[in-house]
Design a protein that fits this description.
The complex is a heterodimer.
Chain A: H1 8-23, E1 29-37, E2 41-42, E3 45-46, E4 53-61, E5 66-77, E6 86-101, E7 104-115, E8 123-131, E9 135-142, E10 152-164, E11 167-179, H2 182-188, E12 193-207, E13 210-219, E14 236-244
Antiparallel strand pairs in A: 1-4, 1-14, 2-3, 4-5, 5-6, 6-7, 7-8, 8-9, 9-10, 10-11, 11-12, 12-13, 13-14
Chain B: E1 2-3, H1 25-38, E2 42-49, E3 54-60, H2 67-75, E4 88-91, H3 110-116, E5 123-128, E6 142-147, H4 158-168, E7 185-190, E8 192-194, E9 202-205, H5 206-218, E10 223-226, E11 228-229, H6 234-245, E12 249-253, E13 270-275, E14 285-288, E15 293-297, E16 301-305, H7 308-325, H8 331-339, E17 351-353, H9 356-364
Parallel strand pairs in B: 5-7, 5-10, 6-7, 10-12, 12-13, 13-14, 14-17
Antiparallel strand pairs in B: 1-3, 2-3, 4-9, 4-11, 8-9, 15-16
Helix pairs in contact in B: 4-7, 5-6, 7-9
Classes of the chains: A mainly beta, B alpha/beta.
């Protein structure tokens, strides 16, 4: 039987999000982006073999604080021989964000990431976070990171600093800690536990509905790649252009 | 105003989170355009106000439309967080040219106060008309200058230049005057526009003032000077409450022609200041020197000014000195320090003549001016 292009469970979840969003109150806000990136970096690791990728996202914000969204990106994931390749990733997410003071908010939510043709690597996460006007932090926890039987924690801090009116400096620092399955560790000679830092610093410009960004992305372990990527990730510059709608 | 949802997780390319990002702005613009079409309005401007969790869209109605019924109908739309009319405000200064010629009064012993404090590194936002940035007494003194009225740069107007000079003109430069807080960091935020080149009158609107207030809040203003008044304004009231909750001290000129000093002076979080020659100032108003005050004027000039605008400017400078001395004190503590300044030794009066020396002495717990008392005593000037 032909494998469906994307996990049926995720497709149903995204469809449910869209239907739910369309049915909600008039006080809600629906927004989206389409983007092109020179290299799709996921937590510092290339998911597009350092080649350009196309992305799109849709977010629903309810006036009560509930939110939900869907995101898709082209990818070039080539795990070791014996596994299929994947050319598309989809993420469904949702949660609740609460403003606790002027300019300060907390959130809790979850997301589910799926890979076309490689549904065995699909995984879900839960996260909690806090945001202020120019800074945010979040901790993600996945009980089955990339479909393995191992859990993973990812913490991130993000900041933006206005330079001039439409120009901002953006920065991101992330730390991931995860374990490989014993079988994978034995097979590919990797240590069972990995601690990886990633960072991103860039300049972004808002021009009408377009956002342009050039950023340097670095990672503490160049050989680090999730098993699914099948390749190494050097530090380097990435650029993106996105259109909000 | 439309709701600005709290920031949250988004996997979009390069998204870094935080209120400062523009995510979702296109969606809100779409809602605003739909509202404008439905109510036959024209969108003039918009800007986010993360401190309030709203995005403000300014819309213009046709001249023949009654505003209040329109506002009432718009308020019923579930997408609208709040809606109000754009109010007009005016600066509070004497317009009489001869008033400037009256004798000078000096009461605060600045020389002695400046031995104790100069307002060093205290950020003061003067929300006013334009300031002449290259005035000999102000050159290099302005940390930030922003124009929220139009796109012009370097607009030097009378009222703003005079207010900022009183607050923080450079000291010991051999020319002109000494600001009350000569080492404070000054933010010259143009939210008002001069009505005529020949007088100190200027007007401001709800949305230019809101933009300037938002900027002051975002950039850590510890003192916000509002030498202006007008009708009660809900948007400004909310922004001022946020500023106060973040520890900013708001000083506003009391309007002698308005009940309770007008808005924003009548707000509980605001230090209302009137000129000390006003006989019927509202209760809980501070009285500061309000006439014949030498200050900076456009055209690299100096001159005498008077009115509650300038009384408030002096109070803002004094507050900066007190913050310099005790950075952690709250606005309530500052108010108490200033309120009990009664030279006659009586209990605090509802309309207090500000005694700067006594306020500084209370803050540092030691003598400040003409010191006749031991440390710990409340010192008063020796006249």
């Amino acid at each position: 039987m032909r494998r469906p292009p994307i996990d049926a469970q995720l497709a149903r979840a995204i469809a449910a999000i869209l239907i739910w969003a369309a049915a909600q109150s008039a006080a809600a806000q629906l927004s989206g982006t389409v983007a092109g990136v020179t290299d799709y970096r996921y937590r510092g690791v290339t998911f597009s073999d350092r080649r350009p990728a196309a992305q799109a996202g849709l977010t629903y914000d309810d006036a009560s604080g509930w939110y939900a969204g869907a995101f898709g990106s082209t990818v070039r994931l080539d795990p070791p021989p014996g596994w299929a390749r994947s050319r598309f990733q989809a993420i469904a997410y949702g949660g609740y964000a609460l403003r606790i003071a002027p300019g300060v908010s907390l959130e809790a939510g979850g997301d589910y990431s799926a890979f076309a043709g490689l549904s065995g690597f699909n995984y879900g996460e839960v996260f909690v976070g806090a945001s202020a006007e120019n800074v945010s932090g979040r901790i993600h926890y996945s009980p089955r990171y990339f479909g393995t039987s191992s859990n993973a924690v990812y913490g991130e801090i993000n900041a933006a600093h206005p330079l001039i009116d439409a120009l901002r400096l953006s920065a991101h620092a992330g730390f991931s800690r995860y374990r490989y399955d014993y079988a994978y560790g034995a097979l590919y000679g990797v240590t069972p536990t990995k601690n990886i830092f990633d960072a991103r610093i860039g300049v972004r410009a808002d021009i009408d509905r377009f956002q342009l960004e050039v950023a340097w992305v670095g990672i503490s372990d160049h050989s680090a790649g999730y098993f699914i990527t099948g390749r190494t990730t050097p530090n380097g510059l990435v650029a993106s252009v996105s259109l909000a709608f | 105003m439309l709701r600005l949802p709290p920031p949250h997780f988004r996997p979009d390319a390069g998204y870094v989170g935080g209120y400062a990002t523009q995510s979702g702005s296109a969606g809100r613009r779409r809602i605003a355009e739909d509202l404008a079409a439905r109510f036959k309005l024209r969108i003039v401007d918009n800007w986010p106000m993360p401190a309030l969790g709203v995005v403000c869209f300014v819309m213009e109605a046709p001249n023949d439309v009654a505003l209040q019924p329109l506002i009432d109908r718009m308020a019923l739309d579930a997408r609208v967080e709040s809606v109000q009319v754009v109010n007009l405000f005016r600066v509070l200064a004497h317009d009489d040219p001869l008033y400037r010629l009256q004798p000078t009064a000096t009461a605060w012993h600045l020389d002695e106060l400046h031995r104790v404090a100069t307002g060093r590194d205290v950020r003061i936002a003067a929300i006013d008309s334009g300031v002449e940035l290259d005035h000999p007494d102000l050159r290099g003194r302005i940390l930030f200058a922003r124009n929220f009225v139009d796109a012009r740069e370097g607009v030097g107007e009378m009222h703003g230049t005079a207010v900022v000079g009183i607050i923080g003109a450079r000291a010991d430069n051999g020319v002109g005057i000494v600001g009350v807080a000569p080492d404070a960091q000054l933010m010259a935020l143009r939210a008002c526009w001069q009505n005529s080149l020949s007088e100190g009158a200027a007007s401001c609107s709800s949305f230019t003032l809101a933009k300037a207030l938002q900027f002051a809040i975002d950039n850590g203003a510890k003192v916000i000077n509002l030498s202006l008044g007008g009708p009660r304004d809900r948007l400004l009231e909310r922004l001022l409450a946020v500023a106060a909750s973040r520890g900013a001290v708001i000083v506003a000129a009391s309007d002698p022609g308005a009940a309770n000093g007008g808005f924003p002076a009548s707000l509980p979080d605001v230090l209302a200041v009137a000129a000390d020659d006003v006989h019927d100032a509202p209760e809980a108003t501070y009285l500061a020197p309000g006439r014949d005050i030498p200050t900076t004027l456009p055209g690299a000039r100096w001159g005498l000014v008077g009115g509650s605008s300038y009384a408030a400017a002096q109070m803002s400078g004094l507050v900066a000195l007190l913050v310099d001395l005790a950075p952690d004190q709250s606005a309530q503590q500052l108010r108490a320090t200033l309120s009990t300044s009664d030279r006659a030794g009586a209990s605090s009066r509802p309309r207090a003549i500000v005694d700067a020396c006594a306020a500084v002495a209370r803050t540092v717990g030691a003598c400040a001016c003409g010191c006749r008392f031991a440390r710990g005593d409340v010192a008063t000037p020796t006249h």
